[in-house]
Amino acid sequence: CAGQPKLPPIDNWDAYQQQLAQLHNWQLRGKLGVRMPADSGSVTLDWEQEASLYAIRLSGPFGQGTTWIRGNRRQVQLEQAGQPPLSAGTPEELIQSALGWDIPVRDLYYWVRGIPAPRAPVASQEKTANGALAYLEQSGWQLSYSRYNTVGPWQLPGKIVAIRDPLKLTLVIRQWEVGDR
Amino acid sequence: ASTASPVEQLSQLLAPMQTLTGSFQQTMLDRDGELLEQSSGLFALKKPGRFRWQTKTPYDQLLVGNQQKLWLYDPDLEQVTVRAVDQRMQQTPALLLSGEVEQIRAQFNVDVVESGTAQQAFALQPKGKNNLFESLVVKFAAGKLSEMVLADSLGQTTTIRLGDLAVNPSVDDQQFNFIPPPGTDVLVDE
């Protein structure tokens, strides 16, 4: 649509995908909408990744109910205002027990950058005119990508809708930072 | 200092305000004082129990509450979450300001932290456990509400500075009702 910055086409998808998967220092800021039968909501989302360390912050209006999820490959800890801290082996377990949400954090680690998770098979995918992912089906999730922006050599999505019935996640990313800081 | 109790002093300052409109600047700092997030927008409050909190930058978000329902509308997510106004939500700062004195007394311990002629400040501790915030400081400048500071159990502080205040303008009740635009995902949360 009009106004979209001219994105350089991705000619070698496999090489592009592998290089982007190796990127370990990035940060995104935006919003996460969650639709679930029992507990829907929307939070502001701040995800900072440095090598294998990650820090994810979710906050409600007035900064209330802020939840921090910090961890590395082996263990992860969740802190939530007004609650004792929790720790577990995977971020998915923690978020499920603390917030009741099924958020596939370790897959989103790749999906938010507009690439499939490397180790799981890709059920199907479609590309944009510029060779970026428009649609991806993987690990039971269906993801639709839009509002791509150029960030350094990468095309990174501004909006992602991920569905695995009855769960729907909507991610709107208003700011990307890539590379070492 | 006057002999009135802190709650009475606070309510004396809140009492003349039937409606209040203005702008807000919200700043969130983590326990080390690092900036987490800044946002700004417009608000409207109307007693009893009605408020409208419109965040404009850096994202769009509208929080509307009356005495039955609370709507959280995110145009960028094309989603609105609708919740019943429950007891816990009574602790939302916006509801506090448009709440009645008895509600405040029932839910908070109130202390005076500053009581000069030009400035007054009160610290409110929610009664009960696992609250969304541990303390809320409400400040008045020249008798007008000027700032609220929330602190949670993680040491995070959210400072909400108010500006362009209009006290008791007429505010249409429709402001405190939300009609989702067509195509919006309406998510009702019991």
Topology:
The complex is a heterodimer of chains A (181) and B (190).
Chain A: H1 13-21, E1 25-35, E2 41-50, E3 53-59, E4 67-71, E5 76-80, E6 86-88, H2 91-99, H3 105-111, E7 122-127, E8 133-138, E9 141-146, E10 149-151, E11 154-156, E12 159-164, E13 167-178
Antiparallel strand pairs in A: 1-2, 1-13, 2-3, 3-4, 4-5, 5-6, 7-8, 8-9, 9-12, 10-11, 12-13
Chain B: H1 6-14, E1 19-29, E2 35-46, E3 50-57, E4 61-65, E5 69-74, E6 79-84, H2 93-97, H3 101-107, E7 108-115, E8 119-126, E9 135-141, E10 144-151, E11 157-167, E12 185-189
Parallel strand pairs in B: 6-12
Antiparallel strand pairs in B: 1-2, 1-11, 2-3, 3-4, 4-5, 5-6, 7-8, 8-9, 9-10, 10-11
Task: Characterise the protein shown here.
The complex is a heterodimer of chains A (181) and B (190). Chain A contains 3 helices and 13 strands. With 181 residues, chain A is mainly beta. The longest helix of chain A has 9 residues, at 13-21. The termini of chain A are far apart. The mean pLDDT of chain A is 92. With 190 residues, chain B is mainly β. Chain B contains 3 helices and 12 strands. The longest helix of chain B has 9 residues, at 6-14. Chain B is globular and about 55 Å long. The N and C termini of chain B lie far apart (46 Å). Classes of the chains: A mainly beta (181), B mainly beta (190). At the A-B interface, strand 1, strand 2 and strand 13 of A face strand 12 of B.
Question: Keywords for this structure?
Answer:
heterodimer; A: 181 residues; mainly beta; eleven-stranded antiparallel beta sheet; two-stranded antiparallel ribbon; 3 helices; 13 strands; B: 190 residues; twelve-stranded mixed beta sheet; 12 strands; globular
